[in-house]
Amino acid sequence: MTTKARTYQLPPTPLIPNSPFPLLHYPGLVRDLVTRPNFKTADIFDLFAQNGWQSQWVARYGPDIQSHYHSTTHECMAVISGEGATIRFGVADAPDWKRGMLGIGERGGGEEGGVDIRAALGDVFIIPAGVSHKTFSPAPETKELAFHQPEDVEAGHAADDISPESEARHREFFGQVPVEGHFMMMGAYPYGGVWDFKIGGEHREKEETVWKVPKPQKDPVLGLSDEGLCGLWK
């Protein structure tokens, strides 16, 4: 299970800290896994877990979500269903952004720059703390976001209990989320990581507090391989 990563170095903007670490995009890295006839979300859950990453959500995407970044942890997102969607990295939305204001195919306003990547089934993204991201224009078209989280994750307590019993409950929870062909991603964080939701401007002149989030010990998919973050995040 190897692929050459596409790397993107995203400099700070007036509103987004971004990161000295590059954004990593592995096209189709887990495509063989998610296209198996008997594929279950537990397969991705187990893959992340064996590399020290905790699955915390599954999302079915609507037309648009707000651009945001996490200041406290790195993030992995894997495309587990659907034809594709566009993800914009590295810039903030316009201040007047509201959910539902954009239609399918519309990009909306916001800061100049960043990079738009068309995500496809089986793609994996590793997003450094501080790098903003925004998913829009999913295919097939979906009108609403559906966000699935275990109760302790939603309450912000995922890092408090990472016992085998707790993780078994999480695994069972995700196994009950239907994967029906809409554009869906599964998100994970290094064990102990608790994510926040920042939309831009919160860390102006304090960017180094975000840049100092520790590097994970393993890549969520490629483990200790130099083809993953262990070799690419220096």
Automatic annotation (TrEMBL):
Transmembrane annotation, as ranges: none
CDD domains: cupin_YjlB-like
Gene3D superfamilies referenced in this protein's UniProt entry, alphabetically: Jelly Rolls
SUPFAM superfamilies (alphabetical): RmlC-like cupins (SSF51182)
InterPro entries: RmlC-like_jellyroll, RmlC_Cupin_sf, YjiB-like
Protein name in UniProt: Cupin type-1 domain-containing protein
Source species: Ophiobolus disseminans
